[in-house]
Amino acid sequence: MLDELGPTAESNRSTAYVSDLHNVYVTFYDEINKVYINDTQNGTEVYQSFILPWWRQVLWTVLFAGMVVVATVGNLVVIWIVLANKRMRSVTNYFLVNLSVADAMVSTLNVTFNFTYMLYSDWPFGHFYCKFCQFIAVLSISASVFTLMAISIDRYVAIMSPLRPRLGKRATLGIAAAIWAGSSVISSPNLIYFTTETTILPDGSTRRVCFPEWPDGITTRSQLEYIYNVAFMVLTYFLPIVSMTFTYARVGVELWGSQSIGECTQRQLDNVKSKRRVVKMMIVVVVIFAVCWLPFHVYFVVTSYYPDVVNYPHIQEIYLGFYWLAMSNSMYNPIIYCWMNSKFRRGFKQFFWCCGALGGGGLSRHRPFGTDRLDRSVRSLSPSRKNGTSTIRISMHSTYNNTLMAST
Fold it and tell me: Which residues form the G-protein coupled receptors family 1 profile domain (predicted)?
């Protein structure tokens, strides 16, 4: 499953890191005695542990911290842009808010804790958060993927069947609630079966571990876990990729490949261009998702058939790279929205402008998505709202504000 990233105590007390679908065995190295720690008594496996040099720990910490900050801030700004402006509250944007909520959750409630666990081989966050952290991991990735699927289906229906009634606000929120409910069901085994334990290392020290203990055996010895992991991979990667590839391929053919009969009005042309921009943006989002998560899933497929790969000297850093790439998917979406959508771009500019005004003590004089210099100059030049000139200027200002953040 997604982020089972803690050491686990097996029946013979060998130590393993558990990640997503299968175990990742990592090697701890005794830097004082310059030897690997082994415990071969009573036929036990080699005890493995691996502590990275401090400068590599710092490097990975900077990479993960930067990713968490960008993902959290970016997704919270996306949520603010849509909820703060009524003209941004379209069906697609509601789904983007749902996606941003899931991405912000995984970056704030999961990545930091699991990365700390991987780095120091110890779980200091308690029994409850061991369960909750892994539950949030699968919950958020499932919600993200199903939201992307919902967006692709909504775009498909809107473009392929333009006369069909669009989803209303209530139906959109109902679909979002169903996404979270289904994701909670998929993630519920983590909440049930994860537990903590304190293990004694061969050198006499202790550490706390967070691991899943399934009804038919501990992790890596459980057939139920294997079935669950395969089902999770199919439901949250292969099935969504196939579905979204089909829908966006059909939509692409319809928008770029079909030839309209007769002349088109400028309004019709603008409508097609608008749809193309939205579809382009969502195709980029899906492609980035597929690229980010593919190495992560391939890694576990390879290690399931070739277990000796996990004993490779640099396997922990290889895994950290794959894990960082997968988790970094949560920070790319806001960047894509800002890059490819002018309305979100204006929203980001307005947000950071407001932050700058707040830092300068001037936020109280401005409104989010509201008036700017044009508005202040209009009001300063309008002596009265009763004359015709003032009415025209106010109308111009209203048009400017309405077009500032029109819905996607």
Answer: 74-337
Instruction: Give bridge partners of residue 9 from the DSSP assignment.
Output: 15
CATH number of 7-350: 1.20.1070.10
Q: What's the whole-number mean pLDDT along residues 187-207?
A: 87
Angle 219-221-227 from CA coordinates, rounded to 5°: 80
Residue type, 193: Y
DSSP one-letter string for 214-273:
ETTEETTS-HHHHHHHHHHHIIIIIHHHHHHHHHHHHHHIIIII---SS---HHHHHHHH
In this predicted structure, what is the pLDDT of residue 266?
66
* Percent of residues, the chain, with pLDDT higher than 90: 39
pLDDT at 159 over 60: yes
Predicted confidence at residue 50, as pLDDT, reads: 56
Q: Tell me how far apart the alpha carbons of residues 290 and 237 are, in angstroms, rounded to a whole number.
A: 8
Pick from 18, 2, 122, 85: which is nearest to 406 by CA?
85
Model confidence at 327, in pLDDT bands (50, 70, 90)? very high
Q: Which element (helix H / strand E) includes 344?
A: helix 342-359
In degrees and rounded to multiples of 5, residue 363 shows phi and psi of -65, -30
Q: Which sign, positive or negative, has the C-alpha torsion 31, 34, 39, 44? A: positive
pLDDT in tens, 88-144: 888 889 999 999 999 999 999 999 999 988 888 789 999 999 999 999 999 999 999
For residue 348, give the DSSP letter: H
| Those residues with Cβ within 8 angstroms of residue 123's Cβ, 6 or more apart along the chain or in another chain | 6, 117, 130, 196, 207, 208, 209, 210
Cβ contacts of residue 122 below 8 Å, gap of 6+? Answer: 207, 208
pLDDT of 273 reads 79
Q: CA 386 → CA 40, 396, 399, 401, distances in Å?
A: 93, 16, 19, 21
CA 252 to chain CA mean position, Å: 25
Residue spans of the domains in the chain: they are 7-350, 373-408
